[in-house]
Write a structure and sequence with these properties.
alpha+beta; 9 strands
Amino acid sequence: MAWVSKINITGLEDGRYAALLGDAHQYLVIGILMRLGFQVAHVTDRGLPYDIVVRAFTRPGGKPVFLRCQIRTIRKGRISFIAGIRAGVDRKYIPGVKEYKFTTEHNDLIIGVDFETLDLYLIPTCFIEKWGKSRAVSKLQPLKNNFEILLNWNCCYLKMLEKRLPP
C-alpha cells in the first residue's frame, strides 16, 4: 500500500496532525470491525480510557460481551500502553503526574493500528499487565489481524493465545 506512506500532505502542525491521526485510526478500526459484522459504538467522551465499545462473543455463536477498546497508533514497530502523557484539557503537562499504564480497570482490549501498514493488533489488556510500558509488534504476531479474539472472548481461548506470545 504505497499510498499509506503519503501522510500529512496538507502540512498540518505536528500536534494537530497527531490528534487527527488518532481520530482517523479510530474510524478505520470502527469501519473494519463493522465490515466484519461486529456492532461497534464510538465513545464521544474524550476523557475515558477507551475509544470504542465492541460487541464480541464468548465463543462463536456464544453469549455476547461488550468490550471497552482503546485504539493506539503503532509507530516504529512498537505500541505504547501508556496514557496521560500529552497535555489534556488543562493544556499543562507535568512529567509523571498524569501518566499511567492501562489496566483492566481502564479497558478490556487495546487495538493497535500500524502506522505504515494499517494492520490491526488486538491485545487483551490482561496481557499487558505483565509487560512494560510498550512492546515490539514483532512479539505480537499471533495478535495481528486476529479477529477470532472477538469471537472467542473467554478465559480458555485467551490463555491459549497468551502462551503463543514470546516473553
